[in-house]
């Protein structure tokens, strides 16, 4: 089944307390929306609460990048679409595209590196079990056709404008 | 006056609601702490509420990168130190190092690119006024001696481990 867009993984209205003194969504709350979208992705892949409780494993975020491309207002509704960019036995590199109704292009794009970790006295990375690995492979295939709809992860530097 | 560490710009305890199902600080709330540290930096440089109201200018975050280096627990107290990495007439590239008492090295390092914007019907970038530019230059000089205490901004990719 061909979809016409990457998988819609999470959507939310803007909570009033997320608006800052500039009158729009405070930068940090893009990160919270991404974090909730990442939770939804875990549910989608079978890394849900039951799995986490049964195995004491979870995902740790190692690194996160966020591009802020358009202002988001309190009246906006955010839709977050997911593209799995890469994965190995223990890690996923995931992109989340944030859309509103007011722009055809994303208002923000976030990328994260996620690591599968067994918690305990000394938390350590462990491979995804086979069923999860299959779900990851399926999402990787489904994501392959989609080009990045905006800037990708890059080093921060003062480029000439 | 020689300081033995970069400027302490913000500190905070961990709010109980910032703890996630993994038992430590949710990734997104590092971003919120960085956002508050960024507000404190604005006050430090004279880009405070009075300035913002008088001029209708403020800072927009263009891009943000965050490294998550150690787990942060609810009993931790976060100290955020600031290093100004680069600046031009309208932009600042800032690093924020997050410390707790439990580790000598940072638990997290965030970097942001900030743009000076005049708000209105069509927001647009404008140069910093002279007094602010002087404060920025002073912080840039004060930051110069400090090496990065951990990883710097880079592209996200699945490197071999």
Overview of this protein structure:
2 copies of one chain form a homodimer. Chain A is of the alpha+beta class. Chain A has a single domain (7-143), classed as Hotdog Thioesterase (Thiol Ester Dehydrase, Chain A, Roll). Chain A is built from 3 helices and 6 strands, in the order βααβββββα. Chain A has helices spanning 27-45, 49-55, 130-143; strands at residues 7-13, 57-68, 77-87, 91-99, 108-118, 124-125. In chain A, strands 1, 2, 3, 4, 5 and 6 form a 6-stranded antiparallel β-sheet that branches. The first copy, chain A, starts with 6 loop residues before the first strand and ends in an 18-residue tail after the last helix. The model of chain A has no long low-confidence stretch (mean pLDDT 95). At the A-B interface, helix 1, strand 2 and strand 5 of A face helix 1, strand 2 and strand 5 of B. Strand 2 of chain A pairs antiparallel with strand 2 of chain B, so a sheet runs across the interface.
Kindly summarize this structure in a few lines.
2 copies of one chain form a homodimer. Chain A has 161 residues and is of the alpha+beta class.
Rg measurement of chain A, Å: 17 Å
> How many structural domains in the coordinates of chain A?
1
Mean pLDDT across the residues of chain A is: 95
Query: CATH H level of chain A: which superfamily?
Result: Hotdog Thioesterase
Largest chain interface and its two residue counts? A-B, 44 and 44 residues
As a percent range, the share of strand residues of chain A is 25-35%
What's the number of extended β-strand segments of chain A?
A: 6
Shape, per Cα inertia axes of chain A: globular
